[in-house]
Amino acid sequence: MEITKDYSSSKIRKKIFSMILPITIESVLQMIVGFVSMAMIGRISAIAVGALGLSMRITQIVWALFKGVTTGASVFVAQAHGAQNYKKLRQVVQQTLLSTIILVILLQIIIFWKAPVLILNLFHPKEDLLQSAVTYLRVVSWGLPFMAIMLVVAGVLQGTGNAMTPMLITLFMNIVNASLSFVFIFGKLGMPAMGIRGAALATIIAQFMGAMVGLYVLFSRGGILNSLFNKKLFNLDIRQIGDIYRVGMPTAFESIFWQIAALIITNVILSFGEIPLAAHQLGLQAESISYMPAAGFGIAATTFVGQALGAKDKKLGRAYLKETLKGAIIVTLVCASLLIFFPQLVMKILTDDMEVIKLGAKYLIIMGIVQLPQNVSGVLNGALRGAGYTRVPMIVAGIGLWGVRIPLSLLFTYYFHMNIIAIWLVMGADLIVRFFLSFTLYKTRAIFERDVLLEEYN
Known about the structure:
By secondary structure, the protein is mainly α. It has one domain. It is built from 15 helices and no strands.
């Protein structure tokens, strides 16, 4: 996708829309399948929902690590693409893919064998919840390598401006996941009912098929790595990998901060009982109605700002950011209204437990109110990443999580003995604080006023 020199708002909006639409559709597809899967698990038992939640806290740390790595790759890809340095682009993709596969296999082995120790030491759950969580985590760990491959594929393709292909892969994968989940969880088409184990099995089969399609796209005729389908593919370039990880690791740490904070918050909420834990877990899933459609604007900001700066066109970068912010605000206002005005209706999609529905609805109202600052921060942070300032969003996340969310949650729970609503209010306050920090740091970095290229592409 070539960088246009037409600065008119209509042309820029059209180009942003051409990327945002597939990303938004992809996010909505993930949200829908997440809803469907959670609704099926929610009808097994509250224990099953809790087991899924505990296991996801661990697998999401792995996701966060490789999401950060692929963000680093995506920044290099965007700037190389903008500079039309396609040799550099291929090198970045090859080294990212190879290093990711090696690292994720090592992590999968650790998680599979240490699943009981990890869950017991992190959460101290009751025996029935522990057994269900270990069962799910061990099965779903086999899908981690395929998940990492899909993150690489999506990141590098989006870095070139190609959001349609990742969207189609996600569509295919989610259809497989939803279909197999129904069959495996409830025992349809002659299959035995496997419950939560069936949900995990459906997930890894879908991830495997999605990863295979993604690799085909990279190595097929016209694909980014087509010319490297030989011994060169397995040559590690430690310097190149170091550069990618140097840029990507702040984003990885930012996401890991989130996941570690989620571990602590989950432990706090677990102290309130299984119903609050289920309400929190289902509320997180329902909240995706707002933040997943808007998440694409942050990705678009990274891609288009990175490409514009790679092409040394800062005026175009400013124009892209302005239009991306407008789009994110409009989408957020529409989607957040569903959480604020129809919270119980949304929760009823996920469970038929009225106690969980009533409690979870309060979570959705609180989170709905703070969606706008959260999603605007996402766009500003995306622009900073595209310019190579990947450490700034990490710093913001660290201050919000460890300066607001975690200490206040622990204080309100164990010292003042407040209920779970107080924890959710603290989470909302954290997002507002981070919005002001993101805006301030974005202004101070003045990314369109100085040379912020990661390197020169000659």
